[in-house]
Specification:
Largest sheet: 8 strands, mixed
Bound molecules: zinc ion
Low-confidence stretches: none
Number of strands: 17
CATH topology: Metallo-beta-lactamase, Chain A
Radius of gyration: 18 Å
Order of helices and strands: EEHHEEEHEHEEEHHEEEEEHHEEE
Structural class: alpha+beta
Number of domains: 1
Helix content: 10-25%
Oligomer: single chain
Number of helices: 8
Distance between the termini: 10 Å
Length: 290
């Protein structure tokens, strides 16, 4: 997909990632989504099985001479005993997918983690000789300053426990390698590319706004949305949201702005589409996937 003078691809790590509706959106009634089944089924909601269907992928953005990887999914060999489909994976197609896009790990200039949950940092590192080493040895790894501070405090409280152990095996090694740069809202990655603060789902979640020219923008917005379901129901924060009320308020603000400005929203887990534009529909919104 061409985007803002650059080129965007998805590098898939796990698709579909199946989450029981009740696990991710407890107390919400999937039948409330039936009026939108034409758009949501079969890609995003498995109505019969009662599941929400996500994709775990990286966005690969080649732009202005830079190779940027946004979010790094689950990874391989990571011990995640509490989640079977993430646990000790081997022989995934992720690095082959990157190679098929013409990118070697050492070609990546910037890795940006929208937040530090285990499905956004996994490929930060890989196992080599029994040690976790940076997968992308020449990259600057951009992490939200507040996000990093939060999980460092969690790690100090209960070492090895934060995010399924992801801080220990997927964040700490890149810090120790001197590759991490702490960033905040407004940080510039180059012409027309700026970090946005998106706290809510995670305490210091960040996004990336891309000025595509002629007043149009694309906004990589992490887990501000897990599913197009939340365009119809912006108040449906997930069980995994750090501050559900703040996540819902952010979602509503992003929807209103995207509808107003025709922004392409690029949340992290959309299946069979890159992103979505937002249209007003009565008092609410609807997604137009693209
Ligand atoms: Zn996620």
């Amino acid at each position: 997909m061409r985007l803002g003078g650059g080129y965007l691809e998805k590098i898939v790590d796990l698709d579909p990632f199946v989450l029981p509706f009740d696990l991710i959106l407890p107390g919400r009634d999937p039948n409330a989504l039936l009026p939108h089944a034409d758009l949501l089924s079969p890609d995003h909601v498995d109505f019969e099985g009662g599941n929400l269907l996500l994709s775990l992928h990286s966005f690969l953005l080649k732009i202005g001479g830079l190779t940027i990887l946004i979010d790094t999914c689950v990874g391989e060999h990571k011990p995640r005993p509490r989640r079977a489909d993430w646990n000790a994976r081997t022989d995934t197609a992720y690095l082959a997918g990157l190679a098929a896009a013409g990118v070697r790990p050492e070609d990546v200039d910037i890795v940006m983690c929208t937040h530090l949950h285990a499905d956004h940092v996994g490929w930060n590192t890989r196992l080599e000789g029994g040690r976790w080493v940076p997968t992308f040895p020449k990259a600057r790894y951009l992490i939200g300053a507040a996000e990093l501070a939060h999980w460092q405090a969690e790690e100090a409280r209960a070492p090895g426990a934060a995010n399924h152990g992801a801080y220990t095996d997927s964040v700490l090694p890149v810090i120790e390698a001197g590759l991490v740069e702490r960033v905040e809202d407004g940080f510039s990655l180059g012409r027309g590319m700026a970090i946005t603060g998106l706290a809510g789902h995670a305490p210091g979640q960040i996004g990336l706004d891309l000025d595509c020219g002629n007043g149009s923008h694309a906004h990589f917005c992490g887990d501000a949305f897990h599913s197009p379901v939340q365009v119809y129901h912006p108040d449906w924060s997930s069980r995994f949201c750090h501050d559900p009320a703040l996540a819902a308020a952010l979602r509503t603000r992003l929807l209103a702005e995207a509808a107003e400005n025709d922004t392409l929203l690029l949340p992290a887990h959309l299946r069979n589409a890159f992103g979505m534009r937002i249209r007003r529909a009565g008092a609410g919104f609807r997604p137009a996937l693209s």
